[in-house]
Design goal:
The protein has one domain (about 15-190): Aminopeptidase. The chain has about 190 residues and is of the alpha+beta class. A hairpin with a 2-residue loop joins strand 3 (about 75-80) and strand 4 (about 85-95). It has an eight-stranded mixed sheet with strand order 1-2-3-4-5-6-8-7, sandwiched between helices. The chain contains seven helices and eight strands. The chain starts with 14 loop residues before the first strand and ends with a helix.
Length: about 190
């Protein structure tokens, strides 16, 4: 896959928000990852995630992160609330020379503003540090909460698509959203 960013430095950075820490996953995070992402309401909203979600799948996924980050194709962060792993967010090559973001959060942590906070920080990192000019993301059309998160962050609807859901074992309607660096900067206002 084509490099879409250059990671500054040898190690993935640690990003901080008011309540959250975004850092690289470690193999010790595999069991919690499988538990959180393996809940039906979470897994069914992510294209590649199986249901049930085995710990071995989480381990393989985590083990792939460092090479992907160094190769400039995917930088995945664990989202931590104090000492609790609550989800994941990434910047990735979408496979068609566009750069996107993806995220999930454990159901216990829904409706508390955590993913909105993590998205705001990943946008800052992607646009200001990685110098990305356009971010896209797709979500299943029935994922209304995620659509609200994207719209709050400034993303706009681009087109309807469809895609496979590994958890649901079917092709489902999807919606693609986009955000340019210029639009993001304009909504932030003057520095």
């Amino acid at each position: 896959m084509k490099r879409v960013f250059t990671m500054p430095g040898e190690k993935q950075p640690v990003l901080k928000t008011e309540r959250l820490t975004l850092r690289a996953f470690t193999i010790e995070d595999a069991e919690t990852t499988a538990k959180l992402a393996g809940e039906w309401d979470v897994a069914s909203m992510m294209a590649p995630v199986p249901y049930p979600y085995p710990v071995s799948f989480a381990r393989d996924w985590i083990e792939s992160h460092q090479a992907s980050a160094m190769g400039g194709t995917d930088m995945t962060f664990a989202i931590w609330l104090a000492d609790t792993l609550i989800g994941s967010i990434n910047v990735e090559n979408r496979g068609d020379d566009t750069t996107g973001i993806g995220y999930w959060i454990g159901k216990t942590f829904w409706n508390k503003g955590y993913i909105t906070e993590a998205v705001a920080e990943i946008l800052r990192y992607a646009f200001d540090i990685l110098s990305i000019n356009l971010l896209t993301t797709e979500l299943f059309a029935d994922n209304l909460a995620s659509a609200r998160v994207l719209e709050k962050a400034g993303f706009t609807f681009h087109q309807e698509t469809s895609g496979w859901s590994e958890a649901r074992k079917e092709t489902c309607p999807k919606r693609e959203y986009r955000l340019t660096k210029a639009r993001w900067q304009a909504q932030k206002g003057p520095l």
